[in-house]
C-alpha cells in the first residue's frame, strides 16, 4: 500500500511540474526559472516511478494482474 501512495504522490508532483512549465511557457518572465528545469523534473520523476515499479515487481511487493481481461 505504501508503494501505491508514493507513486500517486510522484504522479501528482509530475502533473504540478507540467502545469508550472505551461504557465512559464505562456508568460515569459526573465526573473522566473527556465521551463527546462520543470521538464527535467518531470523526466526524473518518470524515471523514479518506473524504477519503483520494476523494483516492486522484482521483489514481489507489487503483484501484477495474471489475467488482464
Report on the structure:
The protein has a domain at 33-62. It is elongated. The mean pLDDT is 88. It has helices at residues 2-26, 35-59. It is 72% helix and 0% strand. By secondary structure, the chain is mainly α. It is built from two helices and no strands. Helix 1 (2-26) runs antiparallel to helix 2.
Topology of this protein?
Elements: H1 2-26, H2 35-59
Helix pairs in contact: 1-2
What is the rounded Rg? 16 Å
Low-confidence stretches: none
Spatial gap, N to C terminus? 23 Å
Helix content: over 70%
**Total number of helical segments?**
2
Q: Please report which band the strand proportion falls in: under 5%, 5-15%, 15-25%, 25-35%, 35-45% or over 45%.
A: under 5%
Mean pLDDT: 88
The protein's oligomeric status is single chain
Summarize, please.
This protein is mainly α and 69 residues long. The protein has helices at residues 2-26, 35-59.
Which key features would you list for this structure?
2 helices; mainly alpha; 72% helix; 69 residues; elongated
Amino acid at each position: 500500500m505504501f508503494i501505491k501512495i508514493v507513486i500517486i504522490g510522484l504522479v501528482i508532483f509530475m502533473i504540478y511540474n507540467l502545469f508550472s512549465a505551461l504557465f512559464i511557457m505562456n508568460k515569459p518572465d526573465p526573473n522566473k526559472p527556465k521551463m527546462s528545469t520543470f521538464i527535467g523534473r518531470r523526466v526524473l520523476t518518470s524515471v523514479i516511478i518506473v524504477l519503483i515499479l520494476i523494483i516492486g515487481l522484482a521483489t514481489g511487493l507489487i503483484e501484477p494482474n495474471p489475467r488482464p481481461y
